[in-house]
Amino acid sequence: MRWPVQAGFPSPAEDDQEPAIDLNALLVPHPEATFLLRVRGHSMTGAGIDDGDVLLVDKALTPSHGRIVIAVVDGEFTVKRLHLSGDGVRLEAANPDYAPIRFQDGQELQVWGVVTRVIKTL
């Protein structure tokens, strides 16, 4: 899908226009499993996720190594990058001021959904 926009002088050709953009079709392949969440905090700034941004989260997607996920750790929601290895599972921040979350016996982790888009206010 393409929806070009001129960054110079606009083109006067009306017959050159693409069909209207349907945001639901473009952004929400699983409407019954897609949610919006607002970010609070700065742990993912290195991944382009800033305080106040809105995340599009798809619970129908299977979380995999390297994906940014919404996780529930000991009952608290957090957004982090999922790291899967032979050493186990950890959640990594994208800001060096925040340490990775490594799981110990008795800690509970539930990956709630996969982040698919970040919506920013300019």
TrEMBL record:
Give the superkingdom in one word. Answer: Bacteria
Q: Which GO terms describe its molecular function?
A: DNA binding; DNA-directed DNA polymerase activity; hydrolase activity
One example of a Gene Ontology biological process annotation: DNA repair
Pfam families listed in its UniProt record? Peptidase_S24
- CDD domains in the record: S24_LexA-like
Which EC number applies? 2.7.7.7
- Residue ranges of the TM segments: none
Per UniProt, residues of the Peptidase S24/S26A/S26B/S26C domain are 5-115
The record ties this protein, via InterPro entries, to: LexA-like, LexA/Signal_pep-like_sf, LexA_repressor, Peptidase_S24_LexA, Peptidase_S24_S26A/B/C
Please name the top-level EC class of this enzyme: transferase
Does Cell membrane show up as a keyword for this record? Answer: no
| NCBIfam families with a match to the protein in the record | PRK10276.1
Family, per entry: Belongs to the peptidase S24 family.
Name recorded for this polypeptide? Translesion error-prone DNA polymerase V autoproteolytic subunit
Organism, by scientific name, is Thiohalocapsa marina
